[in-house]
């Protein structure tokens, strides 16, 4: 795509091109190795084929309304840093309009707040920094911890050549957060990362890179949000979770982009021997959301718990693909994704449990449940198994059902308004997943978000 000059775009360029890559790198002051990596990624992007409706993962996905050539490829590079207190007072990333809260200092291990391509504020508990914990925005990590970034950034979990949109992300990444926890360091309080977008007609590329060394433990919360705007926007997120032996990570992600956004997420976790990952993915916002979420159980005796909640309304389209990839013996994966939908919304779920030939004694479970709240909504569910070992226990299940009018009538007959009755039923539907999250703040946030969705 050729870049064209516009009069009103502060980035000066629209569309994605090699020139836009160079302009972004220059404005950010990238070191030479980052600029060269961006250009190499752009070459991958131009070489890789675009997803086609004949590809199984994209068969139910229509991209014709996405206009990449009309977007500003980056935005908000020159915003000023502000204090966390000021952000909270102004409602940025605070518990306002239902967003997750920054939390007070005694409720977090560290926080990074970003808007468009700029880091507004960042901090980390000094006692953790003294133990070698690194928690900062990705630009700071490139400057101060270049060896670690070069080693892990889009090399192991999500390689640059993973796919066309992942290559575009590698060329244009702008914001992002880096968490590194050294060997045998355990952190109980959550690290919190907030990515916000506010410039109309622009693309945002946020990246989360989490590395836990042997025996390390951490809790990481990712939150994406923006107000709804008139112009289409593009949100590209890549999440890389790298767990070494005996490492334990709890990862929570909440996506609440505005209804103008087209959201693409690729997340991959790699687990070494005896590593444990417990993840939750919440999808509430955007006009269009395409999520590819995978756990690679590469070591023995690993555990991956993968939970998901989504609620689509209006004309929203949510497409989730999950991967439980067992490559070693004695590993366990447990997946439960639940979706509610109303209006003319549509959801797609496709999941794969894949067990390699040597991965004996695998125990894998996959469950997808869908609750349809209106006659014009539609849910598709496609669970899959691919088993190459002969001593495993692998099961999957999928359901798509409507709310029984009899249940609504039962509650209404007891004086409960119809909207409140639906809310109770939907909350009960999601409750088994919510109860598996041992964090009261997140439970409360989900309950409030579900209530708002039901009442829309």
UniProtKB/TrEMBL annotation:
The lineage of its organism: Bacteria, Pseudomonadati, Thermomicrobiota, Thermomicrobia, Thermomicrobiales. One of its GO terms (biological process) is iron-sulfur cluster assembly. Residues 200-429 form the SUF system FeS cluster assembly SufBD core domain. Belongs to the iron-sulfur cluster assembly SufBD family. Residues 129-190 form the SUF system FeS cluster assembly SufBD N-terminal domain. This is Iron-sulfur cluster assembly protein SufD.
């Amino acid at each position: 795509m050729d870049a064209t000059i516009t009069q009103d775009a502060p980035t000066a360029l629209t569309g994605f091109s090699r020139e836009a890559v160079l302009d972004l790198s220059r404005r950010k002051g990238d070191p030479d190795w980052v600029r060269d990596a961006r250009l190499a990624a752009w070459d991958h992007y131009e070489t890789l084929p675009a997803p086609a409706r004949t590809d199984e993962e994209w068969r139910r996905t229509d991209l014709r309304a996405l206009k990449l050539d009309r977007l500003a490829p980056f935005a908000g590079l020159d915003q000023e840093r502000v204090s966390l207190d000021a952000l909270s007072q102004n409602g940025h990333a605070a518990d306002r309009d239902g967003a997750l809260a920054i939390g007070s200092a005694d409720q977090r291990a560290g926080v990074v707040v970003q808007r468009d391509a700029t880091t507004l504020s960042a901090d980390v508990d000094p006692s953790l920094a003294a133990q070698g914990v690194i928690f900062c925005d990705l630009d700071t990590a490139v400057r101060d911890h270049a060896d670690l970034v070069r080693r892990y950034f889009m090399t192991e979990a999500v390689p640059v050549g993973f796919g066309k949109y992942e290559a575009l992300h590698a060329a244009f990444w702008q914001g992002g957060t880096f968490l590194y926890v050294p060997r045998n360091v355990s952190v109980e309080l959550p690290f919190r990362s907030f990515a916000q977008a506010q410039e109309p007609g622009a693309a945002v590329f946020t990246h989360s890179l989490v590395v836990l060394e042997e025996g390390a433990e951490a809790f990481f919360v990712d939150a994406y949000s923006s107000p709804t705007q008139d112009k289409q926007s593009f949100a590209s997120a890549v999440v890389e979770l790298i767990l070494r032996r005996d490492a334990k990570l709890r990862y929570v992600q909440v996506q609440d982009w505005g209804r103008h956004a087209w959201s693409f997420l690729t997340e991959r976790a790699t687990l070494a021997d005896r590593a444990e990952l417990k993840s939750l993915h919440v999808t509430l916002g955007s006009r269009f959301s395409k999520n590819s979420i995978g756990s690679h159980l590469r070591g023995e005796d690993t555990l991956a718990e993968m939970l998901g909640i989504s609620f689509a309304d209006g004309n929203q389209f949510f497409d989730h693909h999950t991967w439980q990839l067992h490559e070693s013996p004695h590993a366990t994966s447990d997946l439960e994704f639940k979706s509610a939908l109303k209006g003319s919304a549509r959801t797609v779920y496709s999941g794969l449990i894949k067990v390699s030939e040597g991965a004996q004694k695998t125990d894998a479970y996959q469950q997808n449940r869908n609750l349809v709240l209106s006659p014009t909504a539609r849910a598709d569910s496609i669970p899959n198994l691919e088993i190459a070992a002969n001593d495993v226990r692998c099961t999957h299940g999928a359901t798509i059902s409507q709310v029984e009018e009899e249940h609504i009538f039962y509650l209404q007959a007891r004086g409960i308004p119809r909207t409140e009755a639906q809310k109770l039923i939907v909350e009960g539907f999601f409750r088994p997943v919510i109860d598996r999250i041992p964090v009261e703040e997140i439970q409360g946030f989900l309950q409030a978000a579900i209530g708002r969705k039901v009442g829309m």
